[in-house]
Amino acid sequence: MSTDSRFTHKIWQEEELSKMVEGGVPFPMLSDAGGKIGKVYGVYDEDAGVDIRGRFLIDPEGKILAMEVM
Questions:
Q1: Residues 16, 9: contact at Cβ < 8 Å?
Q2: Which pLDDT tens digit goes with each residue over 25-62?
Q3: Residue 64: beta bridge partners?
Q4: pTM
Q5: Pick from 13, 17, 50: which is nearest to 70 by CA?
Q6: What pLDDT is attached to residue 23?
Q7: How far apart are CA 45 and CA 59, in angstroms?
Q8: Would residue 8 be called left, alpha or beta, if left means φ above 0 and alpha means ψ between -120 and 50 degrees?
Q9: Are 44 and 38 in contact (CB under 8 A)?
Q10: Of 46, 21, 25, residue with least CA distance to 35
Q11: What are phi and psi of 44, to 5 degrees?
């Protein structure tokens, strides 16, 4: 997920990810325009208008088990 548009994700999937992962990633990429979800997870940079890089391990009930924010 990033603040990039779904169109940017589509191009990135086709042009870059497909070179790294055969057939691209096997799950949909999400757009967080405006940083709504990034704000909830504490990774939205208001000044830059982007989500900073982070990884979250979330269980099926929605509980965050682990996280790493860079």
A1: no
A2: 788 888 998 999 999 999 999 999 999 999 999 999 99
A3: 58
A4: 0.70
A5: 50
A6: 75
A7: 26
A8: alpha
A9: yes
A10: 46
A11: -90, 125
